[in-house]
Design goal:
The complex is a heterodimer of chains A (224) and B (321). Chain A is mostly helical. Chain A has helices at residues 23-50, 54-77, 83-87, 102-110, 112-116, 122-129, 137-142, 172-184, 190-200, 206-221, and strands at residues 6-9, 15-18, 90-94, 144-148. Classes of the chains: A mainly alpha (224), B mainly alpha (321).
Chain lengths: 224, 321
Amino acid sequence: MIDDRQSMRTAEGATLSLVPAGILPRGGAFLIDLLIRAPVYIAALIVMSTRTGSAAGLMLIFLFLLEWFYPVLFEVLRHGQTPGKRMLGIAVTHTDGAPVTLNGSLLRNLIRQADFFPMFYLTGFVAMLSNRRFQRFGDMAANTMVVHVGNSRPPQQISVAQTTPPDWQVTLDDQQTLLALLERQDSLSAARRQELCALGWPELDSAQAEQRALATARYLRGLE
Amino acid sequence: MKQAQFEKQFEADWRQLDQHLATLEKLRRGDLANDPLLNQLPASYRRICHHQALARERGYSLSLIQRLDDLVLRGYRQLYRPRLPLAAPIKQFLLAGFPQAVRAQWPWQLASAVAFCVSLILLWALVRNQPDMVYALLDQATAEQMESMYHPEAEHRNQRSAGDDVTMFGYYIYNNIGIAFRTFAGGLFFGVGALFVMLFNGSFFGAIAAHLTNAGFQQPFFTFVIAHGAPELTAIVLAGGAGLRLGWALLAPGPWSRREALGLAASQAMTVMYGAFALLLLAAFIEAFWSPRQFEAWIKYSVGGVLWLLTLGYLFAAGRR
């Protein structure tokens, strides 16, 4: 597979596969969080400019918490997802797939300041492009990464039709290739489907090759 | 077994686990402990791991593998949810963990303290000898503002209300803790950011202290700053030291890769940052509610002196066996 999926084995022998989130979803999530925070910020500033005394002091403490701990609060209590991250289907995890801890979340959010330097996350941007996990410096220090979650599609119904047993010793690769063809047939144009199938059955004409490939795939899947 | 049979046999299982996980993901931490679903999770997690391994081994289609991968990951994330550390760890941390961590990082903490103190003493000596040099560091307006703040006859000094105290408390938290956090993060740039903050703050403090002494305002100034200075200046130096620790990991990672060294240094430095945070909260409290009170100078100096002794004694001695 040519992709940025990171696979690792857990103690239970299960395979965890993590798909790192790139610049766009992360930037989008940041903007959404910013839009959520901005009105609160402005309201607090208005309160502070009109009132003095205790109210202003409490507002300052509130602003301090909002500025530094907004992401920490959500990441720790809401499965690594701030509201922005939730909307874009991404979450913070440790690099071993475990949910982010309080320590990890605090660390990555304190070092956010360095990633922001000198402006618009330039440092963090360069750091993210330089490693396979798209980690900014805060992530590297906290051993965290931002991954896509809940991205599997619902199972698809595949119609039952004629099947043909394969006339060769099928390898796992062959099987997965044919099963993938079966699942993706609707998203490929007819011409492209025939072109692909002709690669496997060059002796047949392309329409027959397609029929043969799909029938073999249905057989392998067990649709009888 | 072919994929279609496999799916047919276990589809109900997977759907159930999916719903089950969705419920757990919505639950808040508090409700979780007595949730009956939680007891079933380990068993259903093991089952889904088994299915995933079978699906991979038998070369079933990628979309099925991906679906099972996703369930495994979600199960794993529920099973290994971190518990929030609370009372007991906090007590252990304050009694021993924090001062031990500071001492374990003594080279960086010392470097940070030296940078701060040396720049403070240099600027103090300079401005005491050449009073005009203060304007090299701060502009006229800031200097005048400082003078009026600490003028012995200034009226505002006797008229602070309780509301003002709370305002200032909020301000000190917002400002000082923010500075400490930024100092720490700035250390990531090979320590330069942290070192700069130490040098700048040391110089600034030295210059202002000397300037106010030149003007004859030393009493109001020192009686104001001495008490909260103990936790506050200490915490800023500690944040600087923690930042230097980060930067050093990148400069000289030793036997680790730079990334590993950074992770290692960060987890150690973070311990100090928790402590610095606690010290700054204490400092903000003292600065807002004690420092502005008017008492005889000797009372203020003794309280301040005791606080300095306590702070430094705590860092040097607490948690030793």
